[in-house]
Amino acid sequence: MRNTVVDVVIVGAGPVGTNAAVFLAAMGISVQLLEVGSDILEGASRAAFINHGDGFEYYKPGHRRTGELCIDGAFAKGLLYPIAALQTKVCDADHPIRFLLTAESARKDGITLTEFFENARSMQRHFARRFVALRRKLDFSVERMALAFSRTPDTFWRPLGDAELADVNGIVGGCSGSSSGINMAYYYAFLKDGIRTRGVGFQSNCVVESIEASPGGYVVNAGGNAFRARQVMLAAGHQVPALVSKIRGIAVGSPPAGTYFLNAMTLLELPPTRNRHTLEAARRINFALQQEQGGMFACLAAPSESRAGMAAVYAPSSSGSQLSAHSFRAGSPPPVAWNSSIADGLPVDDVNVLGTWQRICRLYPFLEGYGKIRRTMCRAVFNLGTTDSNGGTDRRVREIVDVEPRISADASISAWAAPKWTNAELVALMATDHVLKGLGARQLPKHAEFGLGPTALDVAEIADSLRLSSCREDDALRYIRAEGLPESLLGVAPNTGSET
């Protein structure tokens, strides 16, 4: 039995836990990262993340804080990563990410294009405030800001003309955004390099048996070993309630109340074709809003005349990609049956997979007779319970709140989750700040003007020392092969030179 002593143990190697581990290690804090799976990022959607830095999904005035936090998260990600290196290169000026309003939504939910565009202008104003403040802080030209963050207030959005909507059905209008697809292979590779170069202790295939009080802190018994630390961070997604039940010897509170969701993401093969219309339509990232009337088609790797591509699709309804929900308030963890769905995915003939396919083909008719269902992954997400989110059941409100998510009375055991992948780094920095406070170390700087997120963290001030700016091609290739993704996603090796 190995006995390891560190400053902090982090349980869960998803985007929040892994980023927090790398950030803390860069500050000289000793970290042990534990993961029940075989590698980092296994609990996350491993193929189809979108950098949702536009906020256009959150069209109601009461939802706009969620969109603003997505914009803040996108800025934080751009400060901490060479963001251009993470893009799938699917989106460009001729193929922008598109946010579309369906006729069904307009009819059933009463959404109007006027409201839709007013929200886009509201998000643009928030983006412009952050852009101007960070430009002043960084002393960058507009051109250099555009390079660092891939957009400016002027390029943030525009309404789409009728001719630009000819390849989709049942759409009353929409707008182009300025976010993009994220190349998860390179994101994985940057994080793997961060773990390797900054000395993070990492153990995979590691089941936590107990968390017990010990002199000066806690001991986490996991994988037949004992890890002693002053701080314990739980960043294990839907496994957090079960982990809390394994805490021994101290009084603990319940994890934050909210709603866990089990979602499915279906991957499509896009075969080679000489049909120019199909090639154009396939090279898109589309979000048709809202809820049951919507559906996402996101190209990961564009097809060509000689090479297959790949896309992900998602239909936001209980007959499509939203499989199950679990309201969590006090002590009842999500169903154990979720674990097998997460491990095995769904078969091609599953009723929800077929429902997703039918919905997506109605919206994007070029897929009928062309796209081929390859596989469907299942992942759990958590939506914090707030007044506006109705206990976390309203997916259109995904808040980050300025509350220490304490599990132990002294907050030395805490639980963290990001509402969106886009603001995973922002939440990881909040968790890092919390741990620093508990260790009696100097906390991260905040600034009323330059700060991001609910705690106004001055990410620009600390980014130079935390920035993940190198990765290895073999790590990215390993991810591609493990996930069965097209090697065309690798493209040209990312430019890892500093952009900020």
Task: Please provide a written account of the structure.
This protein has helices spanning about 15-25, 65-80, 85, 105-110, 115-140, 140-150, 185-195, 240-245, 275-280, 335-345, 350-365, 425-440, 460-465, 475-485, and strands at about 5, 10, 30-35, 100, 160, 170-175, 200-205, 210-215, 215-220, 225-230, 230-235, 245-250, 260-270, 285-290, 295-300, 310-315, 320-330, 370-385, 415. With about 500 residues, the chain is of the alpha/beta class. The chain has one domain: 3-Layer(bba) Sandwich (FAD/NAD(P)-binding domain). Strands 4, 5, 6, 13, 14, 15, 16, 17 and 18 form a 9-stranded mixed sheet that branches. Strands 1-10-9-8-12 form a 5-stranded mixed sheet, with no helix packed on it. A hairpin with a 5-residue loop joins strand 14 (about 285-290) and strand 15. It starts with a strand and ends in a 17-residue tail after the last helix.
Mean pLDDT: 91
Q: Quick one: biggest sheet?
A: 9 strands, mixed
The value of Rg in angstroms is 22 Å
**Overall geometric form:** globular
- Structural class comes to alpha/beta
- CATH domain topology: FAD/NAD(P)-binding domain
Estimated share of beta-strand residues? 15-25%
Unreliable spans: 496-500
Individual helix count: 14
The number of distinct β-strands equals 19
Q: In which range does the helix fraction lie? A: 25-40%
How would you describe the oligomerization state of the chains in this entry? single chain
Cα distance, first to last residue?
Answer: 45 Å
Task: List the domain count as a whole number.
Answer: 1
